Amino acid sequence: MALIHCDFFSEVLGVSTSMYVILPQATKNQIGMEGRTIRSKHPTLYLLHGLSDDHTIWLRRTSIERYVAPLGLAVVMPAVGRSFYTDMKNGYRYWTFISEELPEIARSFFPLSDKREDNFVAGLSMGGYGAFKLALRCPDKYAAAASLSGALDIVNLVKNAAEPMASEFYNIFGDPQTVEGSDNDLYYLAQKVAQSQGPKPKLYQCCGTEDFLYQGNIAFRDYCQKLGLDITYEEGPGQHEWGFWDKYIQNVLKWLPL
Fold first, then answer.
1. pLDDT average, residue stretch 125-144
2. What percent of the chain stands above pLDDT 90?
3. Is the dihedral of CA 29, 33, 38, 43 positive or negative?
4. Do strands 74-78 and 231-236 pair parallel, antiparallel, or not at all (unpaired)?
5. In 63-149, where does DSSP find H-type helix?
6. Angle between helices 186-195 and 214-227 (to 10 degrees)
7. Which residues are the signal sequence here (predicted)?
8. Is there a contact between 158 and 173 (Cβ–Cβ < 8 Å)?
9. What DSSP string describes 187-209?
10. How many CB atoms lie within 10 A of CB 164?
11. DSSP state of 42
């Protein structure tokens, strides 16, 4: 594998930002690991971080580079701050960045496939929300999406937040009463995709049974199943922590339709 720390300028954000990129490399002589490539334009997983993290976190807390080496899968890990992958009311346009600009920039730098069947997105917590939002708002671009302990019921999280998080949510989403039924509401997006005649991404969802987001994850799973969406759900003992995510990202990689 090749690991690249890429600093670049974002026209959408108006500032320089960063991403880590893992690129497949066919190798036979590495001790303890064999790399693989499966085509000249690599299938790609956009791997999203959580609220208190940045683009380095998946590399620092898991063995993601080792996990993807035999798969021939590229991984793009961008930095988005505490944005909830949203064009913020008071802040940067991170939704436009992550959904439009980032894939174009990454493909201009690296040999990444632009085919829907080769593009996937996953994330933890805030990144789980971002992953499902990307796949459900852009079902023509992503074949599959995975949420690990995702903050999926954003409507209730925003409405019931106490300070200082309530003010932070206001700066991200604006008036809490406007979130429900908007393009930031995963329930609304799931229903919209289910009722459409267009492509529908495969969904994977997992959560620890002791996680404070567990009940919200169960509710969203049940809603997607009721809509008839293709969703795979797993759970197990665990809280909102990296031991759980390091284990289940391996399940995500096995599940991806590569």
1. 98
2. 93
3. negative
4. unpaired
5. 64-68, 94-96, 102-109, 126-137
6. 20
7. none
8. yes
9. HHHHHHHHHSSS---EEEEEEET
10. 8
11. B
Backbone dihedral region for residue 157 (phi beyond 0: left; psi -120 to 50: alpha; all else: beta): alpha
Which CATH number does the domain 2-151+187-255 belong to among 3.40.50.1820, 3.90.1150.10, 2.40.440.10, 3.40.1260.20? Answer: 3.40.50.1820
Render 209-220 in DSSP notation, one character per residue: TT-TTHHHHHHH
Q: What is the pLDDT of residues 237-254, one digit of tens each?
A: 999 999 999 999 999 999
* Residue 74 near residue 114 (C-beta atoms within 8 A): no
Structure tokens at 209: 């049974």
Q: Kindly report the CA angle at 46 between 45 and 51, in degrees rounded to 5?
A: 140
The H or E element that residue 9 is part of is: strand 2-10
